[in-house]
Amino acid sequence: MDIENLPIRKINSLFSNKELKPSELYSKIFDNAANSEASLHAHLTLFEEENLKKAKESDSRYDNGTSKSLLDGIPIAIKDNINIKNYATTCSSKMLSNYTSPYDATVIKKLKESEALFTGKTNLDEFAMGSSTENSAFGLTKNPWDTDFVPGGSSGGSAASVGARSSVAALGSDTGGSIRQPASFCGLVGFKPTYGTVSRYGLIAFASSLDQIGPITKTVDDSRIIYSAISGEDPRDATSIVNNQVDIPSDKTAKIGVIKELMEDGISDEARNEVNKVIEILKSSGYQVKEISIPIIKLAISIYYLIAPAECSANLARFDGVRYGLRVDGKTSYEMMENTRAEGFGKEVKRRILLGTYALSAGYYDEYYGKALQARKEMIDEFTKAFKEVDYLISPTTPTQAFKAGEKTSNPLEMYMSDLCTIPANLAGLPAISVPTGITDDNLPLGVQVMSKALSDNSLLNFSEIIEKEIQFNHQPKGWM
Amino acid sequence: MNYFQAILRIKVSKDFDIKNIAKLASINLSEEEQEKLDKDLSIILEHVKALSDLKLNTEQNEIYIHPLEKELELQEDELVESLTHEEALSNAPDSKDGKFIVPPAME
């Protein structure tokens, strides 16, 4: 039995029936991680010793029948922009290479209460800015399906870790697709919850009105279990909300829309084929499927690349060499700040800070940022209208399959375009999930994205599970176990 | 040019000036970086200009703050667990007597 392929609920029942010990699973998973690390570089840090000790405590809880939750003893990898007390949190940036977290993020506090185990911190594009994990200051992560290809980003390390079975599941963060796109590129489920349902406290901020923490897992049910453990209102995050879920049907009475604008130009045949395959399956199961137009989606990249850099330039102003992180000396405080930021930030981060600074500067604010905020409201209105007609919206997760390392690094816009299908859910605050559906001619996995209205996360998970069961995606990358 | 001159300058200059923006963002850029970023930002700005042609149905001034239009709530003014003084200073590049140490503001 390949225990590292099992879903969480099954592992938990093996633990409960004393057929498997958490410490045995942890050792197996840790060996996988240690073996694949040189080829994939999914992790920036691996925590062996202290977590093996924790795993043994979990063994005793299952022995005594006092296990805490479904996640008790489950090894989970954490994206390195989420704080775990007393460990380094680098955001894959030189700026934070010597930073040790003095506190736990709320999601970490909740996972600790569930007695989940942590396998390590995973690599990302610096400060979560990128779509390939090539922007990490500590080297790139490779796709476990084919190491010539990128794992996606920015949560590329989290996706590669779960893909190579170096963790049972992982946490990522998603600002414009950073959970869903790498999940699609690595043959996994990636779930971005409704904005506000998971606390952002302890997630190092990139663009606060868009950032959301969520799971990368092998199955939809695993995402459901983790979401249920990490969600909830938090007084430390003023944008968090009480998770009052609304129920929408997921059975055959559900109405499905296919987003017209995400099946046209800029979408590859292979990505379109996956969507068409899912539509056919749904139709033959008796679902009503129709085309829905959301014209403003054509402007999603423009809106996003004003709002996200604007928020990033404000959030990253805190890295000034005074309170934490790198300091490069200068004769005056200003000079010290300028030198520190020049040395500490990589080129994509500088690009976005400068773009945001410009968009927010006097004289340009209305023309750029103000207009983008209005367009964002317009997008929300168009989605609201669409959800009066249908319950779920289907589209590709990504315009193409995974691309090769170095392929999109010369032109920033080309890289930005790879987030075309995922950005709208962040702008509108909607829940969205990528479910793996097929393998391309290049033997790379690809997923399909489903979105639903705000606070219908549980229904979205139920509906995605139906697609998952119908599709029976039973592939996994070879050579890592 | 210092930071404050840069703020004044952006108000009068209608051109996109990478040096000025870098000053506002407090990032010291090399000549080579300036050239590359100037090019990159021009490409991106050209693309986002598509927004200016957008005819909005939305009422003027109606902007997005939170997808669920969360109402702001007041919190009780009570003491909650937070970082200790030592923890808050634990990552500081330089500190003394419980304070952050920085170079002088002026030469």
What would you note in describing this structure?
The complex is a heterodimer of chains A (481) and B (107). Chain A is α/β, with parallel strands linked by helices and 481 residues long. Chain A has a domain at 3-250 and 431-471: Amidase signature (AS) domain (Amidase signature (AS) enzymes, Alpha-Beta Complex). Chain A is built from 15 helices and 11 strands. Chain A has helices at residues 8-16, 22-40, 49-64, 106-113, 156-163, 180-185, 220-230, 269-284, 300-315, 333-344, 347-360, 366-389, 412-417, 423-428, 457-471; strands spanning 43-46, 75-79, 117-122, 169-174, 189-192, 212-217, 255-259, 288-292, 392-396, 432-439, 445-451. Chain A has an 11-stranded mixed sheet, sandwiched between helices. In chain A, strand 7, helix 8 (269-284) and strand 8 (288-292) form a beta-alpha-beta unit. Chain A starts with 7 loop residues before the first helix and ends in a 10-residue tail after the last helix. Chain B has a domain at 1-49. Chain B has 107 residues and is mostly helical. Chain B has 4 helices and 2 strands, in the order ααααββ. Helices cover 37% and strands 4% of the residues of chain B. A two-stranded antiparallel sheet of chain B has the order 1-2. Chain B is flat and about 50 Å long. Chain B starts with a helix and ends in a 7-residue tail after the last strand. The longest helix of chain B has 18 residues, at 31-48. At the A-B interface, helix 9, helix 10, helix 11, helix 12 and helix 13 of A face helix 1, helix 2 and helix 3 of B.
Q: Report low-confidence residues of chain A grouped into runs of 5 or more.
A: none
Low-confidence stretches of chain B: none
Q: What would the average pLDDT of chain A be, to the nearest integer?
A: 96
Element-by-element helix/strand order of chain A? HHEHEHEHEHEEHEHEHHHHEHHEEH
- Report on the biggest sheet of chain A: 11 strands, mixed
Radius of gyration computed on alpha carbons of chain A:
21 Å
| Class from secondary-structure proportions of chain B | mainly alpha
Strand content of chain B: under 5%
CATH superfamily of one domain in chain A: Amidase signature (AS) domain
**SS elements, strand count of chain B:** 2
Write down the overall geometry of chain A.
Answer: globular
Question: What's the N-to-C terminus distance of chain B?
Answer: 15 Å
| Rg of chain B computed from alpha carbons, rounded to a whole number of angstroms | 22 Å
What is the straight-line distance between the termini of chain A? 12 Å
Largest sheet of chain B: 2 strands, antiparallel
Strand order of the largest sheet of chain A: 1-3-2-4-6-5-10-11-9-7-8
Query: Mean of the pLDDT scores of chain B?
Result: 83
